[in-house]
Amino acid sequence: MRGVADLRRELSVRGQEMALANKSLYELTAGETPSVIFGRNERQHGNFHPVFYRNICANPKCKIIAGFREEKFFLKEKKTMQNTTERKDVYSRITAQIVEYLEKGVRPWVRPWNAEHAAGRITRPLRFNGQPYSGINVLSLWTSALSQNFAAPIWMTYRHAGELNAHVRKGEKGSLVVYANAITRTERDDRTDEDVEREIPYMKGYMVFNVEQIEGLPEIYYSKAVPTHDPVVRIDHAEKFFGSLGATIRHGGNRAYYRQELDYVQMPPFEAFRDADSYYSTLAHELTHWTKPPQRLNRDLGRKTWGDEGYSREELVAELGSAFLCADLELRQEPREENAAYIATWVEVLKNDNRAIFAAAAHAQRAADYLNQIAATQVSETCAA
C-alpha cells in the first residue's frame, strides 16, 4: 500500500530520471524565460537534485552576478512578468481568488478535495517531482483545485508535461503560482564611500497545470487512492508531533486560546471535541499563536486591542498555520465557531491590502516550518539517545 510519502519518493526518482535522460535542469521559476539562481557561497537554492547542482557549479559557462551564480535558459522569446505593474497584478489576482470564496463563507484552505488520489485525502499541493509547494502557492493551488474540482494534488508546467512525453489538453487554463526571492548587490554608498550590500526582492508568476488537465502522463500521476494506514496510527502520529514541541498545554474549561504573558496554550478536554481531527486542528491553531513571541519567531502584526486589524491578521496567520500543519499531518482542519465572525474582517483586510494574504501565508509557513523543525530535532535526539 502506497501512502503520500511513498508517492513523493516515486515522483522524485522519476523527476531525477527524466532530467538525467534529457540532460536538462529543472527549477522553481519555470516560465517563458526561466532563470536558475544559486545562493551565496554556491549554496544550493531551489529544487535541484545534488548531481545537477554539482554539474552546474562546475560549468564554466555559469557566471557570478552580485554574489550569485546564475545561468539563464531561454525557451521562447515572450514577454515575462518582470515589470512592477504585472507583479502587482499577481498580488491582485491571487487575492481576488481567495476573497471570492471568503465572501461566500468558504475558506478555500479547508476542503480535503483529493480524497480519490493516491496522495491521500489531505496533502499540500505537490510539484511533478513530489516536492510540496509552500506559502501562498499552497493557498493559490488549493483555491484553484476547489474551483475546478480537481481530485489530484499534483501540478506541473507545460514544459515539464512535455518532458514527460505528455501534453496539456487544448483549451485548459493554467493556475497561477509565484516564485519570490531576493538578490544581493554590492553598491557604493555615496555618504561613506564604502561598499554596502543591498537586497533587491523580486517575484515571478508562472502557470502550472493539474495532472487532470494533462494527457499521456505515466500512470503514477493518476494513481487512485488505497488505504494507507488506519486512523489510530494517524492520530497517534499527531499526538507525538504536538507532544514533542515542548509547549505548555493545559486542559480544562470551554475555550481554546494562547496566553502570551504566561506562555501557555489552554485547550478544552479532548472529550469535549466532536472528533480527534477537531481537537488537533484547534491545537495546531493555538500552537501557531505560540510561535509569535520574541523568544520564538517575534511576529508582531500590530495588534493593539482585541478585534482590531492586527488581531485579525494574527488570527489569519494562525488559521493558515493550522491548515498547513493539518495537511502535513494528514488531518482534517475543522472550522472553529469564531471563523464566521473572522471571515468578514479577513475580507476587509484583504480588499484593503492585496499583499496581506501573501504576508499571512509567509508568516504561517514560517510558523509551520518552525514547529516541524522542533519536532524533527526532538525525534533525532530521541533516536540518538
Which class of secondary structure composition applies to the elements?
A: alpha+beta
Extract low-pLDDT stretches.
Answer: 23-87
Largest sheet: 3 strands, antiparallel
The beta-strand count equals: 11
Summarize the structure.
This protein is an alpha+beta fold. 41% of the residues lie in helices and 16% in strands. It has ten helices and eleven strands.
Report on this structure.
The protein is α+β, with helices and mostly antiparallel strands and 385 residues long. It folds into two domains: 84-222, no CATH class; 231-384, no CATH class. Helices cover 41% and strands 16% of the residues. The protein is built from ten helices and eleven strands. It has helices at residues 4-22, 50-58, 84-102, 136-148, 158-163, 231-243, 276-290, 309-328, 339-352, 356-384, and strands at residues 35-38, 63-65, 68-72, 155-156, 167-168, 175-189, 194-210, 214-215, 249-251, 257-259, 264-267. Strands 1-3-2 form a three-stranded antiparallel sheet, with no helix packed on it. It has a three-stranded antiparallel sheet with strand order 4-7-6. Helix 3 packs across helix 4 (136-148). The longest helix has 29 residues, at 356-384. It is globular. The model is unreliable at 23-87 (pLDDT under 50).
